[in-house]
Amino acid sequence: MKKTIVFFLIIVFSSLNLFSQPVSKFKDGERVVFLGNSITDGGHYHSFIWLFYMTRFPNMDVRIMNGGIGGDTAYDMYKRLDDDIFSKRPTTLVVTFGMNDSGYFEYNSDKAKEFGEEKYQACFKNFKMMEKRLLELPNTRIVMMGSSPYDENAKISGNTPFKGKNAVMQRIVEFQRQAALANNWEFLDLNQPMTEINQKFQQKDSTFTLCGQDRIHPDNDGHMVMAYLFLKQQGFAGNKVADIEINASKNNVVKSANCEISNLKKFGNKLSFDYLAYSLPYPLDTVARGWNSKKSQAKATEYVPFMEEMNQEILKVTGLKGNYKLMIDENEIGTWSGNDFAVGINLAKETATPQYQQALAIMHLNEYRWEIERNFRDYAWIQFNFFQQKGLLFADNLESIKALDSEIGKNIWLKIQRDNYARMMLKPVREGREAEMNLLISKIYDSNKPVTRKITLIKM
Fold first, then answer.
1. Which of 69, 112, 313, 398 has the smallest count of CB within 10 Å of its CB?
2. Cβ atoms 447, 358 nearer than 8 A
3. Are strands 252-257 and 242-247 parallel, antiparallel or unpaired?
4. Cα 413 from Cα 411, distance rounded (Å)
5. For residue range 235-252, what is the model confidence (pLDDT) as tens digits?
6. DSSP E strands: which ranges in 268-322?
7. Residue 331: pLDDT over 80
């Protein structure tokens, strides 16, 4: 059964180029901003992408920033380009919209077709205004990214789907693709491949979805699928953490890709060598993090071949007979047969390795960074969804608080954001939080450098 699923995934993801164009890999010193709605604002996909760069390229300083605001349409994004997005000085800007632009409840009315056409035309008109501004950024690379889908087909108790909504979203994706072609921008589509995964797994489980219980907001597994699709379009399929092959009979190193092997010794029932990788394995979180989350990041490996394509730290040793215990430094990792070692062990799957534990610390530091960044996005939400209309954009004074308090009883979202704003409106608080985030990033880049490990195989 697993082979059938993997075969399906290979077919799906080998067809990605039908929907996308190559997306260049990020380079050292890049500042990447993901402009989007709540899927970006409260989501992890951009953080998961950054974690890949943090672990795979430990000597590359790349900054990836969240530029999402919940509820935004293309017009809302257009209005905040200067004060929110361009002020981050992006060298690469990834632009995604369509979920809110395509509308919601009216799809279940008698005029669903007319409503969908109206929303499509409004979105296209708003995008053309945005497009004009984006073309004024000669030193910024633009990537258009088709939105993750609205899942109309999953059987979700108490949630009636808006039939026809995703078809309108796919039309929006198509004009995004055409704009990318016309403007020499880069492009990828998340909608079609995620829809195909949903349809495949819904054949066995009608409740399955990558799009969350509201059909809109992916859970952690969905965000990891999004990160995988982005990284695949950047050409990382086949990019290994490391690839080692040792011939135990001849006591020599056959292969050492993306790593250095030294001090190879064979004595008695032991084989040992020093191993310095140039990358760390990618750590996959097994905890369902976030408000109302049900699934973990690691769950995504059941739907996409991330481990097979992008997280391979291969240790292959030929010429062994019997069973061997694997030690890395002072840590016992496991016991495998000589045949297993001849095929190759993927160390990236072994969470007890010291290099995986090192990467795990990077994952948690990145998660703390993400939490602080979310405070800034909540601060941005209230600025652009409330104060901008009041003529109080970034006023951050007592008049702002009075205006906010006068409306709290009418808007539950303002009430939710009030406490965060009362703190973040104070410049020293923002500066302190920014310093915290920068300290975490510095710690990440101090801690993500691989170190030499002692690998020992002991015959049992």
1. 398
2. yes
3. antiparallel
4. 5
5. 999 999 999 999 999 999
6. 270-277, 313-318
7. yes
